[in-house]
Design brief:
It is a single chain. With about 260 residues, the protein is α/β, with parallel strands linked by helices. The protein folds into 2 domains: about 1-20 and about 140-215 and about 235-250, Periplasmic binding protein-like II (D-Maltodextrin-Binding Protein, domain 2, 3-Layer(aba) Sandwich); about 25-120, 3-Layer(aba) Sandwich (D-Maltodextrin-Binding Protein, domain 2), CATH 3.40.190.10. About 45% of the residues lie in helices and about 15% in strands. It is built from 13 helices and 7 strands. The protein has helices spanning about 1-5, 55-65, 85-90, 105-110, 125-130, 145-150, 150-170, 175-180, 180-185, 190-200, 210-225, 225-230, 240-250, and strands at about 15-20, 25-30, 45-50, 75-80, 95-100, 115-120, 140-145. The strands form 2 sheets. The chain has a 5-stranded mixed sheet, with helices on both faces. Helix 2 (about 55-65) links the parallel strand 3 and strand 4 (about 75-80). The longest helix is centred in the middle third of the chain and has 19 residues, at about 150-170. It is globular.
């Protein structure tokens, strides 16, 4: 999304390998409002938490509101951060809903079995329904000029990411967790494992940018940013699959 956002400011950035094919954003209803809020349309006039105003979570909220026929500015946006602060805001009823990420969503689901989720872009199903294709949640990128002048370095970075993705998809969540530092896993291993199982599908199997995904990023940010909407951005210039294709020929890691 930075590549698209900054293209509106005439800064030419280029993504060259994707590692997150889904954004992992989850629109969740606060436990105390489960019976009151049953669809995105019900968020009009409600307080909705985002990591921070102007963040990707904020843009996602506005996109979802517009997609469901609701004024994107009709919900009151409240910055609640990520992690423990977002979970606390939800459980204490400070907000009516929130756009969250894992492991926070898994934490809430563990405490509230009837937690209502309005959109879950950790999954392929909701991502495709929401955006019409994959939505690149994370990628390596640099300036287009740097990529053009440093093809060897760009290829090496691409190869490393693809090797990592191949390793992730060839090992079980339990095997992956066993390799993680104890301070990362934390005391609640079951919770970490559950969050890991929820997030592994988000990781790309190919490293390729889906052109529909790039278009989706532009569509999302156009809703919340008039600057992006009016910039006439050529999204095809914000990414290249050349290095992933080359890796496929030389390393066999890319599918």
């Amino acid at each position: 999304d930075h590549c698209v956002n900054l293209a509106a400011k005439k800064q030419e950035l280029q993504a060259f390998v994707v590692y997150d094919r889904y954004p992992g954003l989850v629109l969740v209803v606060a436990p105390s409002r489960t019976n009151d809020i049953k669809s995105v349309k019900d968020l009009a006039g409600k307080k909705v938490g985002v990591s921070a105003p102007g963040s990707s979570t904020d843009f996602f909220l506005k996109y979802m509101l517009k997609k469901n026929g609701v004024d994107p500015t009709s919900a009151a946006v409240i910055g609640v951060g990520l992690g423990a602060t977002a979970v606390a805001a939800m459980e204490q009823g400070q907000i009516d809903a929130a756009v969250m990420l894992d492991p926070s969503v898994t934490v809430l689901q563990g405490s509230h079995k009837d937690l209502r989720i309005l959109s879950d872009t950790r999954t392929q199903k909701d991502t495709l329904e929401t955006f019409g294709g994959e939505y690149p949640g994370g990628a390596l990128y640099s300036t287009a000029a740097w990529v053009a002048k440093h093809e060897k370095e760009t290829q090496a970075l691409t190869n490393a990411i693809l090797a990592t993705l191949a390793w992730i998809h060839s090992h079980s969540p339990e095997e992956i967790m066993a390799k993680m530092p104890e301070e990362t896993v934390g005391k609640n291993k079951d919770l970490y494992l559950a969050a890991l199982k929820n997030t592994i599908p988000m990781y790309s199997e190919t490293g390729k940018m889906d052109p529909k995904g790039a278009d989706a990023v532009l569509a999302v940010f156009s809703v919340g940013s008039p600057e992006v909407a009016n910039a006439k951005i050529d999204v095809s210039k914000t990414f290249t699959n050349t290095f992933v294709e080359q890796a496929k020929k030389t390393t066999g890691n890319a599918k």
